[in-house]
Amino acid sequence: MQRLWSWNNAWFRWSVASLVVLLVGSMLVGFVWLPSVHSDFTAKSLWDSICRAAGVPTTWSDANTPEKRPQSTSVVLERSMTRVSENDQVGRGATLALNCTMCHGAQGMSTSNAPNLAGQYPEVVIKQLQDYKGGKRSNAVMEQLASSLSNQDIEDLAAYYAYLPKARTAPTTYDEQLPALVRVGDPLRNIAPCISCHGGVDQKIGTPWIEGMPKDYLIAQLEAFKSGVRRNDAQSQMRNMVRAMTRDEIAELASFYAGKAGAGEHK
């Protein structure tokens, strides 16, 4: 009588062969075919494919990888930044803002695809100016202008723009007619709904008001986050959200938020 686990047993040989075929097939599907169907993945080697499927970095020691780069922003958001404490701040900020009118408009509403600043949350303006000043966000004009501003100047500018009339519609809140990414995101791609941070009811501190922003500006910033060119989002929040989005989805989001402009606003 043949032993059950003997190689001479035909049933045992067939079982082992089937297991090997199943294992190889599963590895090809999980580590090669599935990663290859993602448009944002370029396989340099089988190791890249395996790491992509397993969700781990391809290298642990390269100091130039995003995980090892310097902190993307050094600004610590505090609740005190959300409040404008003195009327004098607004006056000083209005004087400083004369240098900003060419791009951001005389009343904080841009006609040149720069962001609208009228009514923007003060901590948002403070953070972005500090990031420009510290080289954490890149723009030749803004870096030059911000480099000459003191911390008090930055707070005054933020107070002024927050004081300006909010020429904008009601905040975007949950509605069945909203685009899917705005309303519910895409959990399978780890994309949170836009309104979870940019909503008007539970606005997260430091999250900008984006309704009515110029469409081209929104597209440019989302593309910059997607590619990693812009890196001043704390804990890579925006980069993680946008990385999995397609360009059509980015254009849809930009069109939606630009279309939320109120009467008289520039798109």
Automatic annotation (TrEMBL):
SUPFAM superfamilies: Cytochrome c (SSF46626). The chain crosses the membrane at residues 12-34. Keywords: Electron transport, Heme, Iron, Membrane, Metal-binding, Transmembrane, Transmembrane helix, Transport. The keyword Zinc does not apply. InterPro entries: Cyt_c-like_dom, Cyt_c-like_dom_sf, Cytochrome_c_Oxidase_Subunit. Residues 88-165, 180-261 form the Cytochrome c domain. This is Cytochrome c. The lineage of its organism: Bacteria, Pseudomonadati, Pseudomonadota, Betaproteobacteria, Burkholderiales.
